[in-house]
Design a protein that fits this description.
The structure holds four protein chains of four kinds. Chain A is an alpha+beta fold. Helices cover 18% and strands 17% of the residues of chain A. In chain A, β4 and β5 form a beta hairpin. The longest helix of chain A has 13 residues, at 159-171. Chain C is an alpha+beta fold. Chain C has three domains: 3-174, no CATH class; 176-218; 256-340, Cytochrome c-like domain (Cytochrome Bc1 Complex, Chain D, domain 2), CATH 1.10.760. Helices cover 44% and strands 8% of the residues of chain C. Chain D has 23 helices and 25 strands. In chain D, β2 and β3 (74-80) form a beta hairpin. The chains are: A alpha+beta, B mainly alpha, C alpha+beta, D alpha/beta. The interface between A and C is medium-sized, with 33 and 17 residues.
Chain lengths: 240, 485, 343, 730
């Protein structure tokens, strides 16, 4: 159902696992753009690290033929999102315009049902009130709420940027151009491993990358129809 | 023994037969069965009401203890609200913990009450009569405590009213597609239903209390008994409405625990996403519920000295019931387990591996409490009728079933699709305090309640006794049952 | 003629039944008799007409009401508030079924209970003929009869050793119609209030300062102070001219209108130094500043548009910046005008 | 109609984060809020519309261009400058975190005096008084003044300091800190000088390369210009026709570059030269890549024991041959030396050996920063030998005044260097650092400079990419957040009182100086004919660079003769100290500056996902032998010192090596860094390398003993072993 084209956009992210160096630039960029608080050492130890986007590292093989694979994981903006229907107050719902999965902090009562039902575990719960030692709060992005304790939050594809971009385009009375809107993570990524765009715009970069033979979706078997596509890491072999 | 004589004079002074061999049989029957051991109503009324008013030092000490624990619970809850859920042990993968397990558990023990009195009433089982109300009371307060937990559990309690289907300036309505909303509906229905059911059956006894009490209690009871006089019409309608309510409330009861289980099984979480959860949880609930009823029976009988009303026969019957439920529960648990085990899907296996691995102590303790002990003992009548034994078994089953709930909720959650995010869960002090405190709260409510209403449905006992008589068949005396209604 | 209410207590069913027969023989109709007991003895035990029951309409009515409520909670809300979740569609059947089941059950139970209350006229708010010993096992027989018959009834009672015989003037027992109306009225109003008060809250008519930690955010939002000074001399990406989003590289087309406006503005803002034609002719102030170019047009020719723009707005050497006097558009008009000045 | 409005309400709330709707639930805020009347808005501020300022990142010396998003006069986001030739619109985690340096809660908010060194009791000082003090001290010290700058010092300050020193006849300012040591700029420059006669840092063009052999250089992580190389790497992986190139990483401990490599070769520490030599030898012997290349290889390669080389790599010889062939037969192969190997006792030799590989294919991927048309040049780095010289002078009491800017000697040097005692001999120490770091804690005065987001400057980028010389601009993006003065102005003002200096430093303020330097440059890519415009464009576009790279031939191999492939020497008996110590800069904390920024502390290390802590990486087999597991605290002991750190069992490291990240273990530097983790530099001696110029910081052996202590590691990853059945989802 997620695929039927409407007059809206189908915002899509491509993650090239072959290029991701795990350098955490996207993670920090996300913290900076979305006012995500930093969790203390103890919180991390208790398994409560707050990152809207995390880079999962998986080991393969044994020394000396060991490999480390990086997998950036953030909200997959599922077409059929498991987190949406379970919310009793519609805090998590599907935007018919951006075709992404949206979390309305103000509605959230914190049942954390969505968090359980997210197979990607990308939904973050505010266990404490967010803390920004003065004057660090001067940096906070005015386009983004600071979430109150007891609220679920997650990656929004930097919807504040999507909105700004679209309003700007409306003001100038032109259609959105590809690459005009870039989320903080993709913007920062040095190797260009993250590509963002509107899949329904045929000549956008993502539209051209999606058909790649390296393409796969995370946990595809669950049928959640993510809006995030991954490109498998390749390998060049040496010698015979 | 002459049928004619049985109806001359009140049913409670049936004379003994002349033949003393038969007489001994009759007397034996009276010792055995409450229904045959008819006493003058005045006496039973006095017995019940006297216990209702008695409050010894032991009572007050118990009350104080429970009260203290309850206070601790509310304080812990307040702290949690102020400082945020961070003080609990929950983490980014295990977002549901004991609070949800408690919800399931308390609804569970609340389950048997209404079931026993409603189902057995429809099936005209007489052993229900003296224990029906004790059971229903558990339902009432069990549900009340359970209903606390969704509230304790949420992150922004001050916004909880968003979940209520009331019109509001935000133009928002709750999402009827959410299992939580179904659950809310089911619990409300069940709570209201069982309250009505209990109240209806309570009216004649309240009237009785009104007739024998003075002062404020008399005022209270005359208000509550709605002016009951016991006319044929009133009695008849009472019978009918009780049957109607029993009829509706049984499916509702099933729906309640199914709804609770669906909170879990609607999620695509390995260890949860299983169609068997509905019936499985219902059975589990009945299991722990019946055990809870037995515990309450024992406590009530001991503390209120109701040896006359609650006899071996009742414990025996409940014991058998419990045994049947044990087997059913084992069947369901096994079905669920073998399905996951045989299917051999990595994640389901991971969940089971965790249960038999790091969580093995809890897991095997659970099996011991829920399977080994009941199966090993309940087949013997001596055990079933011995109060201490039943007390122990009942408590063990409570423990076992509670562990089972926690394992299902938090255990499963700590395993998920991306192994990068597996996090184990350990409870912190708030969970512990709140859980114990709620148990105490339940006990507190129950204690106070027994001092305000007759915990024995006396009129049902009369009714049974009026129905039961004994007649001679050949050389033996058999108990007979005549519908007076 | 005044009726009398009689109440006799008997200690077993048999006797009561006999009494009932004899009283009936005295011509007292069944309706005038009531048997009260501590045990649900059915009417046929006393050979009396069975009690009539009206439960069905109540239960069905309740069920229907429940269905309505369920309809609102499902289709109703999704119509009032259409919203997509999880690709389930607006009105998926299975959840709807659940809500229907619960609501129908709830309201049919309430219906049954209401039926119970109303048929029994509960709560009974006036005095009734009753004796407390009934709940101790005696069976009471209440008879309502005119004086003459009452006498005979009493004799019948005595004949069967009634434990107690009460007799009172029926007028002492009023019907409770009015009181019931008041009672249910009170209940209704209570219910109404119980519905209205939450609405007052949920519509913010009565404001409770709910804790909403998201409103008092630490973020410095648009127009919130204290305003911080901009870096002096720094040049933003938008260009040398401090106008956010206003590129210094896109002049207005040099249309007639623009040129006229430009001329006007030039006259008021620039001419006193540069002269009306940009040649310092008649520029009073200009006299004192030799560095003012002889021909502004010629000077402008070697400058790019945005440089002109920047110079006008920010000033240069001794020439003051006019940023505060001119809007960007006006500045562009002047640029165009200055360009139009000949060498 | 209501339907419509409801839809709109949805749309709005869809913004979810848009602060507008947060007024949704009516509610008075407790915070004091002053609404600014925008009737006469200042030109540069429009409500809700951001300003962007271009500037230069100073979190490391790479000189990436940044654009900063400013709202309400507050810097809220740093992004890469899309026009900038170095990072081309991208930015690393450290660059992003610059904001937290600007708004760091522990910044020194004004000039202060410290009564007793190390007491950390600072009494505020009026600025004119402070400048006066500086003047008096400078005047008194005359020639006995030493200036110590580092990678956080803007280019213009280095120039000003240099001019001052020159004017008063003091020795030239020192430019040295841990970053320069870890980047082993000395060894690189020396090697390039020996091979190509170019004593500068090498730039590599990877975009078109088809084979990259990287010896220890974590060029994607924390080496030289990681973001620039990251961009190059991205292009390297997505070349035309789906070609993705071959990256082979030779290093004892897997870095993120190693993780991205197609082949990770665990070379024994110190044996890199040997391996490089072996590759050349093989190419020469097998005649790979044609006669010319083979010949060149033969000329360079000396006698190499191939089996020893293979053994040192933990790979069979056949693989080494295959690798050699792949390199030799590649069209555009690149070899990158760097990281720990350059810090070994044979550092220069090793770098030379590796760098020589480039010569095979005519150094196609190798390039050096072309000189600028004007005198403007990148300030050179000092060698460790010069540091030692200064330290000796200080200890000898020949230094009366020490000015420290942008460096943190006490933290940056191994204790063996005796820096602490030397500082004690200095009459006056004045620090210009924005935070109280280990050195400022020993200073008598702190005259905090503005952070790079508040201050002026320029940076002559080195290494440059694709042969483009770049002068990156640095301008204030926000007004000064505290009462702090730009060191340039402070210096210029103080210098006025000193006749010699006054003549050499005639500028009224630093901006005038910078402007003079910049406007001297010819018209660059951003155009601008007169000085005004060029100056404005320089700031607007974030720097100066030519339209196209100046023509420059691929560097010619100047050196002759065979390479020295001797292995490195390590201090500590192998018997006593069985393991090699491999130090590496944390990708996030860099050389330790990042430790004061919560974002960098809180972000997980890419390979271990540990945050906030220091750990020691140990190979699983070794860990088994030692009987340690994740989170067991061990004592790592070298001949020079010892640290206690928790273990991280790390599959990607040689069994004979243990690795510890640098960056933590601060005794100062603010609340986020203080007393956190440990500083592994304490395990390193102060020995010099083979050419006697650079610190051999990677030449220690250690022993590891288990303590019965545990410290839970703050890992983002699961601490549970998923077992065999659970498959990586890709």
């Amino acid at each position: 159902m997620a695929e039927e084209q409407s007059n809206g956009h189908k915002w899509t992210m491509i993650v090239d696992a072959d290029k991701c160096t795990g350098c955490q630039a996207c993670v920090v960029a996300c913290h900076a753009e979305n006012n995500v608080p930093v969790s203390s050492e103890d919180e991390v130890i208790r398994g409560r690290a707050m990152h809207w986007m995390r880079i999962e590292r998986y080991w393969e093989g044994e020394y000396p033929n060991v490999k480390a694979r990086f997998l950036p994981v953030f909200c997959q903006q599922c077409g059929n999102a498991p987190c949406e229907p379970v919310c009793p107050v519609y805090a998590s719902y599907h935007s018919t315009e951006e075709n992404i999965n949206i979390q309305v902090y103000n509605r959230c009562v914190g049942t954390r049902y969505c968090g359980n039902n997210c197979p990607y575990r990308v939904r973050i719960f505010n266990f404490w009130a967010p803390r920004f030692d003065a004057p660090l709060e001067q940096q906070l992005n005015p386009d983004v709420t600071v979430r109150s304790p007891g609220v679920m939050e997650k990656c929004t594809f930097c919807i504040q940027r999507i909105r700004r971009g679209r309003e700007q385009a409306n003001i100038e009375g032109r259609p959105l151009e590809d690459g005009e809107i870039i989320p903080a993570c993709a913007q920062a990524c040095p190797t260009d491993a993250l590509v963002f765009g509107d899949k329904w715009d045929e000549n956008s970069r993502v539209a051209q990358m999606v058909p790649s033979e390296r393409q796969f979706k995370l946990l595809e078997n669950l049928g959640t129809e993510p809006a995030v596509y991954y490109l498998k890491g390749g390998e060049t072999h040496v010698g015979e | 023994m002459l049928e004619s004589r049985a109806t001359i004079g009140p049913y409670w002074d049936e004379p003994l037969p002349d033949d003393e061999h038969l007489a001994r049989q009759v007397e034996h029957g009276r010792e055995e069965h409450l229904m045959l051991d008819a006493r003058p109503p005045a006496e039973l009324n006095q017995l019940t009401l006297a216990r209702m008013r008695q409050t010894g030092p032991r009572f007050w000490i118990a009350l104080a203890g429970l009260g203290a624990l309850t206070l601790a619970f509310f304080i812990a809850w307040a702290i949690q609200i102020v400082s945020g859920l961070g003080i609990t042990g929950l983490n980014r993968s295990v977002m549901w913990g004991p609070y949800i397990a408690n919800l399931i558990y308390f609804i569970g023990i609340g389950h048997a009450g209404t079931f026993i009195s409603a189902a057995l009433r429809l099936m005209r089982m007489d052993f229900r009569r003296p224990i029906a109300r004790a059971a229903e009371t558990i339902t009432l307060f069990g549900l009340a405590c359970a209903a606390l937990f969704p509230i304790i559990h949420v992150g922004r309690i001050w916004k909880l009213f968003y979940m209520l289907p009331i019109p509001n300036q935000r133009d928002l309505w709750p999402n009827f597609r959410s299992a939580l909303f179904w659950d809310m509906m089911a619990i409300t229905t069940y709570l209201i239903g069982s309250t009505l059911f209990m109240y209806v059956a309570l009216i004649p006894d309240l009237a009785m209390a009104r007739d024998h009490m003075t002062g404020w209690r008399r005022k209270l009871y005359s208000a509550l008994s709605l002016g009951w006089r016991g006319t044929e019409g009133e009695w008849h309608r009472l019978e009918v409405v009780s049957n109607l309510l029993s009829f509706v409330i049984i499916p509702v009861m099933f729906s309640v625990h199914t709804g609770v289980s669906w909170n879990l099984s609607m999620a695509i979480q390995p260890g949860w996403h299983s169609a068997i959860f509905g019936p499985f949880f219902v059975v589990g609930a009945l299991y722990s519920g019946v055990a809870a009823v037995i515990l309450v029976m024992i406590i009530v009988r001991k503390t209120m000295r109701f040896g006359y009303f609650m006899r071996e026969e009742h414990f025996n019957a409940m014991g058998i019931f419990l045994l049947i439920l044990t087997l059913t529960w084992i069947y369901f648990y096994f079905a669920e387990w073998i399905t996951n085990w045989y299917g051999n899907l990595p994640l389901e296996k991971a969940v089971q591996a965790m249960l038999t691995g790091p969580l093995a102590p809890l897991f095997y303790l659970m099996l011991f409490c829920n399977i080994v002990v009941p199966l090993g003992t309940l087949w013997s009548r001596r055990v079933r009728t011995s109060l201490p034994a039943m007390l122990v078994i009942g408590i063990l089953i409570q423990v076992g079933m509670y562990i089972e709930r926690v394992l299902i909720v938090s255990g499963s959650l700590s395993r998920n699709e991306l192994p990068f995010n597996w996090v184990n869960y350990t409870p912190h002090w708030p969970e512990v305090t709140v859980t114990l405190g709620t148990l105490a709260f339940l006990g507190l409510l129950y204690m106070v309640y027994t001092r305000f209403v007759p915990i024995i449905p006396v009129w049902e006992v009369y009714e049974g006794q009026a129905m039961q008589g004994s007649r001679r068949v050949g050389r033996a005396v058999m108990s007979t049952r005549t519908e007076v209604h | 003629m005044a009726d009398f209410l009689l109440l006799g207590l008997f200690d077993n069913v048999e006797t009561t039944a006999d009494v009932v027969d004899e009283v009936r023989a005295l011509g007292v109709p069944d309706e005038q008799m009531t048997v009260m007991s501590h045990v649900p003895y059915s009417s046929k035990i006393f050979a009396r007409k069975p009690v009539r029951l009206w439960f069905l309409p109540f239960v069905l009515g309740g069920a229907a009401l429940g269905a309505l409520v369920a309809f609102f909670l499902t289709y109703g809300t999704s119509y009032l508030y259409p919203i997509e979740v999880g690709g389930q569609g607006l009105n998926p059947v299975p959840p709807t079924a659940i809500i229907y089941f619960e609501m129908i059950s709830l309201f049919s139970m309430l219906g049954a209970f209401a039926g119970f209350l109303l048929q029994n006229r509960f709560p009974i708010l006036t005095r009734r003929m009753y004796d407390e010993r009934i709940s101790d096992g005696y069976i009471g027989l209440e008879v309502c009869a005119p004086l003459a018959v009452a006498e005979q009834v009493v004799t019948v009672f005595e004949a069967h050793h009634a434990r107690v015989i009460k007799r009172e003037d029926a007028a002492a027992f009023k019907p409770q119609g009015i009181r019931h109306l008041l009672f249910w009225g009170a209940v209704g109003t209570g219910g109404l209030v119980a519905v209205l008060v939450p609405l007052l809250l949920s519509y913010d008519i009565v404001r409770v300062p709910w804790i909403n930690k998201m409103d008092d955010t630490v973020v410095v939002r648009a127009q919130e102070g204290p305003r911080l000074a901009a870096p002096v001399g720094a040049v933003p990406v938008q260009g040398p001219v401090f106008i956010a989003g206003e590129p210094a590289t896109a002049p207005l087309p040099a249309s007639e209108v623009s040129l006229q406006r430009g001329q006007m503005l030039y006259g008021t803002n620039c001419a006193m130094c540069h002269g009306l034609q940009g040649d310092r002719a008649g520029a009073e102030v200009g006299k004192y500043f030799p560095e003012i170019p002889q021909s502004l047009g010629a000077r402008a020719a070697i400058l790019s548009d945005q440089d002109l723009f920047r110079v006008i707005r920010l000033g240069r050497n001794r020439m003051p910046g006019l940023a505060e006097n001119l809007s960007p558009g006006e500045t562009w008009d002047i640029v165009n005008y200055v360009r139009s000045l000949g060498e | 109609m209501t339907h419509l409005t409801r839809r709109d309400f949805l749309k709005v709330s869809a913004a979810g984060t848009a602060t507008a709707i947060l007024a949704g639930c009516a509610q008075e805020t407790e915070r004091w809020v002053a609404l600014e009347p925008y009737v006469r808005a200042p030109e540069e501020q429009l409500a809700g519309i951001p300003n962007w300022y271009a500037s230069t990142c100073r979190m490391c010396p790479a000189g990436c261009g940044i654009i900063v998003r400013v709202m309400n006069g507050r810097a809220v986001k740093i992004e890469g400058n899309p026009e900038h030739p170095v990072n081309r619109g991208k930015l690393c985690a450290r660059g992003q975190s610059g904001l937290q340096l600007l708004y760091n809660p522990d910044r020194v908010t004004g000039a202060v005096r410290q009564g007793e060194r190390g007491s950390r009791k600072f009494e505020p000082l009026a600025w004119n008084e402070a400048i006066n003090t500086l003047y008096e001290k400078l005047d008194a010290a005359d020639q006995a003044v030493a200036i110590w700058t580092g990678s956080a010092t803007s280019g213009h300050l280095c120039d000003l300091f240099a001019r001052y020193a020159g004017a008063v006849g003091a020795p030239a300012p020192l430019r040295y800190d841990l970053t320069s040591a870890l980047n082993s700029v000395g060894a690189l420059a020396a090697a390039n000088n020996a091979l190509f006669g170019q004593a500068t840092l090498p730039g590599y063009t990877l975009a078109q390369a088809d084979v990259i052999f990287s010896f220890g250089a974590d060029f994607l992580g924390a080496w030289l210009s990681a973001t620039g190389f990251g961009v190059e790497f991205g292009q390297f992986r997505s070349q035309r026709f789906g070609k993705r190139g071959l990256l082979v990483q030779f290093e004892p401990k897997m870095s993120i570059t190693g993780a991205k490599a197609d082949r990770w070769v665990p070379v024994q520490p110190g044996a890199e030269a040997l391996v490089a030599g072996a590759l050349l030898r093989i190419i020469a012997d097998e005649g790979f890549g044609g006669a010319e290349r083979a010949g060149l290889a033969a000329a360079l390669a000396g006698e190499v024991d191939l089996d020893a080389a293979a053994a040192a790599c933990d790979v069979p010889l056949a693989d080494l041959v295959a690798l050699a062939r792949a390199f030799a037969e590649a069209e555009r192969p690149v070899a990158i030396p760097g990281g720990a190997l350059a810090g070994a006792s044979n550092g220069v030799a090793a770098v030379t050996a590796v760098q020589a590989l480039n010569a095979l294919a005519g150094s196609s991927g190798l390039g050096f920063t072309p000189a600028l048309p004007t005198a403007l040049a990148a300030p050179g780095w000092s060698s460790y030998a010069e540091v030692q010289a200064l330290v000796e002078r200080m200890s000898a009491g020949q230094v009366r005044l020490l000015l420290v800017h942008g460096a943190n000697p006490v933290y940056d040097l191994p204790p063996g260097s005796g820096i602490a005692d030397a500082l004690a001999q200095v009459e006056t120490i004045i620090s210009f650092n924005p935070l109280v770091d280990e050195t400022s804690a020993l200073a008598d005065y702190i005259l905090p400079d503005r952070t790079y987001l508040e201050g002026w400057g320029y940076e002559v980028v080195q290494p440059a990419f694709r042969g483009l010389p770049v002068v990156s601009s640095q301008q204030p993006v926000v007004g000064p957040f505290h009462d702090v003065r730009p060191t340039g102005d402070v210096l210029l003002t103080a210098a006025r009182g000193i006749p010699a200096a006054a003549a050499a430093l005639p500028w009224t303020d630093e901006v005038a100086f910078i402007r003079e330097q910049i406007t001297a440059l010819p018209k660059g890519a951003s155009g601008g004919d007169d000085d005004e415009v060029r100056w404005a464009r320089f700031q607007q576009h974030g720097g100066w660079w030519p339209e196209a790279a100046p023509e420059s031939a691929a560097p010619e191999l100047a050196a002759q003769g065979t390479l020295d492939v001797a292995g490195a020497a390590f201090d500590g008996e192998a018997a006593q100290y069985p393991y090699y110590l491999h130090l590496f800069p944390s990708v996030l904390l860099g050389d330790g500056r990042g430790a004061s920024l919560p974002w960098l502390q809180g972000a997980p290390d890419p390979l271990t996902t540990v945050s906030w802590q220091t750990w020691v990486e140990i190979n699983p087999t070794t860990a088994q032998a030692l009987g340690v597991d994740h989170g067991d605290v061990v004592r790592v002991e070298s001949p020079h010192g010892a640290v206690e750190v928790p273990v991280y069992v790390f599959p990607g490291i040689r069994p004979d090596t243990v690795a510890i990240p640098l960056g933590q273990g601060h005794s100062d530097l603010g609340r986020y860094a203080r007393e956190r983790g440990s500083h592994a530099l304490h395990l390193v001696g102060a020995a010099l390398d083979d050419v006697g110029a650079n610190l051999a910081w990677s030449s220690a052996r250690v022993r590891v003993t288990k303590l019965d202590k545990k410290q839970a590691l703050a890992r983002l990853e699961s601490t549970i072993d998923p077992g065999e059945d659970i498959h990586v989802p890709f």
